[in-house]
């Protein structure tokens, strides 16, 4: 029986067919990976800002965290402590502003109730208006001093629209709070497992892009560090200096305006409106010298910070022209909001490095 049916020789697959099958499989795996990456990003699209903020926090704090880890050792309470400090840095100013805003709203409601009962008394400057003093006085007495007319005017406000606005504000606050909590959670795990994440990231970068991938990542990380120093720290410094000036000149709410100045100064040239507003408030209080001091000091501080300090801190860390940095900051802020202050310079740093590598002159020495 075995002689009638000799064993079949193994089938030989042509080399061309084997190579073709391997190419198809590699392409299929690539498309499958891209599909899952795309659908994963789509699934997390509402949480991507929180994850990116967590990454920005972790990159900014990583050098300081490494020094603390070398001193106190690796444990779970160290990343928790760093995360708690970051939370307090953001929550304390927001709480102060919220308390102040609640006081202002309560004062406004009390003023509205007083107006409904007593009307608005005529200011002393109305009868002194040129050309229209009589008409203005008559109009004010007929419309503004009468509690009945003002009460009818205030009741005509769309209360339902105001309630809808309140609900929208509440939902936005809840959403922002949730995203901030996820940012803190991301920060905690990135600090806790930072060495593992860096090691895996380097392996993946070498496999995909080779040695240039690591250079690209280092350039982007340097841009985040430079942006932190050049925008956040410089902005806080400007806010501290101008806050001291507000207090010395007797400006209203100096702490609140100092915080607003610090936040506005994180974006180049954006601190001018805040300083100008404080100067106008001082003028309204008949403090001409205080307004001049605030405006002059603010001009010097903003000019020095935007033209000398920031270019050195940001451009020096990334070896990038300040024009690229400025375009990254302004373009990123316009596109992604506050998060764009860090993403914009990082993207421009990557583009600058790619441009440098692409246009680098290579001299190949070949033997004749």
Secondary structure topology:
Elements: H1 15-43, H2 48-72, H3 77-118, H4 133-143, H5 147-155, H6 159-192, H7 194-209, H8 211-249, H9 254-265, H10 272-284, H11 288-318, H12 322-336, H13 340-358
Helix pairs in contact: 2-3, 2-6, 3-5, 3-6, 7-8, 8-9, 8-11, 8-13, 9-10, 10-11, 12-13
Short précis:
Residues 189-253 form the Cyclic nucleotide-binding domain. This protein has helices at residues 15-43, 48-72, 77-118, 133-143, 147-155, 159-192, 194-209, 211-249, 254-265, 272-284, 288-318, 322-336, 340-358.
Instruction: Kindly report the average pLDDT value.
Output: 78
Number of domains: 2
How much strand content do the residues show?
A: under 5%
Structural class comes to: mainly alpha
- Parts with pLDDT < 50 across at least 5 consecutive residues: 364-368
What's the main sheet like?
none
What would you report as the Rg, rounded to the nearest angstrom? 31 Å
The end-to-end span amounts to: 70 Å
| Strand elements, count | 0
Helix/strand order:
HHHHHHHHHHHHH
Approximate helicity band: over 70%
Pfam family, one: AI-2E_transport
Family: Belongs to the autoinducer-2 exporter (AI-2E) (TC 2.A.86) family.
Domain Cyclic nucleotide-binding: 189-253
Membrane topology: Multi-pass membrane protein
């Amino acid at each position: 029986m075995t002689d009638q049916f000799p064993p079949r020789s193994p089938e030989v697959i042509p080399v061309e067919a084997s190579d073709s099958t391997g190419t198809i499989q590699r392409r299929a795996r690539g498309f499958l990976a891209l599909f899952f990456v795309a659908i994963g990003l789509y699934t997390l699209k509402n949480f991507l800002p929180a994850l990116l903020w967590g990454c920005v926090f972790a990159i900014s704090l990583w050098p300081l965290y490494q020094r603390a880890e070398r001193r106190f050792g690796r444990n779970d309470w160290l990343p928790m402590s760093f995360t708690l400090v970051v939370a307090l840095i953001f929550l304390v100013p927001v709480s102060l502003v919220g308390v102040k805003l609640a006081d202002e709203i309560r004062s406004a409601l009390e003023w509205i109730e007083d107006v409904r009962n007593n009307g608005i008394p005529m200011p002393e400057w109305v009868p002194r208006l040129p050309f229209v003093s009589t008409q203005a006085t008559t109009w004010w007495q007929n419309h503004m001093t009468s509690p009945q007319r003002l009460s009818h005017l205030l009741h005509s406000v769309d209360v339902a629209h105001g309630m809808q606005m309140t609900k929208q504000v509440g939902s936005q606050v809840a959403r922002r709070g949730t995203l901030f909590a996820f940012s803190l959670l991301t920060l905690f795990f990135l600090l806790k497992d930072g060495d593992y994440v860096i090691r895996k990231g380097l392996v993946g970068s070498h496999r995909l892009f080779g040695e240039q991938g690591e250079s690209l990542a280092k350039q982007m990380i340097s841009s985040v560090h430079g942006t932190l120093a050049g925008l956040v720290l410089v902005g806080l410094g400007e806010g501290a200096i101008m806050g001291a000036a507000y207090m010395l000149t007797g400006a209203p709410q100096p702490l609140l305006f100092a915080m607003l100045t610090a936040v506005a100064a994180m974006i180049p040239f954006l601190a001018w409106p805040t300083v100008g507003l404080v100067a106008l408030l001082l003028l309204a209080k008949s403090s001409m010298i205080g307004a001049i001091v605030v405006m002059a000091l603010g001009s010097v501080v903003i000019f020095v910070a935007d033209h000398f300090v920031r270019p050195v801190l940001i451009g020096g860390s990334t070896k990038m022209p300040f024009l690229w940095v400025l375009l990254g900051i302004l373009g990123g802020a316009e596109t992604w909001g506050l998060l764009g202050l860090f993403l914009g310079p990082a993207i421009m740093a990557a583009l600058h490095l790619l441009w440098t590598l692409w246009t680098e002159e290579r001299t190949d020495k070949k033997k004749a």
